[in-house]
Amino acid sequence: MGATSIGLILSGGGYRGIAHAGAIKAFEEADIFPNHISGSSAGALAGALYAANYTPEDMLTFFKKVKIFELGRYARKKPGWVDTDTFRSFLLSYFPKNSFEELHRKLFITTTDLLSGKIKVFDSGTIVDALLASASFPGVFSPVAIGDGFYADGGILDNFPVGPIKSCSQLYGVYVSPVTTMKITDFKHSYDVINRALHLRMNAKSMEKFSGCDLVIYPKDLCAYPLFNSKYADELFKIGYVQTKKRLAQKSQCENNF
User: How many CB atoms lie under 10 A from the CB of residue 229?
Assistant: First the structure.
């Protein structure tokens, strides 16, 4: 990667991924234009749209259109509630050439191969299968078969995929799966305990990599929003935008004080 390579890492986080679009808008207003993008799950979707030259407003519209639990999406004879393949035609409408090579920015999509138990990063060939796989949240969406692999959410093993672009001269990250303190009354079902355990582990592994970035946006306000509800899209976009503007201003002030 050249001296002018600017990398952007986008985490998973369900519909909270809409905050990525707001963050990108703020980055561009600060004359920061990443040309290498690495994403998991919702971050892979936002990153792919940006790599294809869609605007932050286009990304917001995209996420608003995605209706996960519509009639006709439920999986039959597949391991998941929602059949991931039912989103294929929708993604193809945004990526009609279905090719990494046709993108305007270099893109890396992180997935988890359930068969080998290893991370698999896609950066060439057809893009839609890789996106479907990376966004296949375990237990909700059915995994995706690609070649000899059986792939699911990239966030299972790497929700903040710095690795593919760590050699960029500048690195910026947006993490939309923050963890905050909870109350005992928040744990009403076994799912709440399992979900908390998963996110604590995921968050700890991700935060270990923050120090390798020039700046990481970590909007704690996102904790108040559900993973799979699109009705807060505009609020999520605004949080990403406002928090990024704030962090960039703080970084600039710090640099000016030296």
Answer: 14
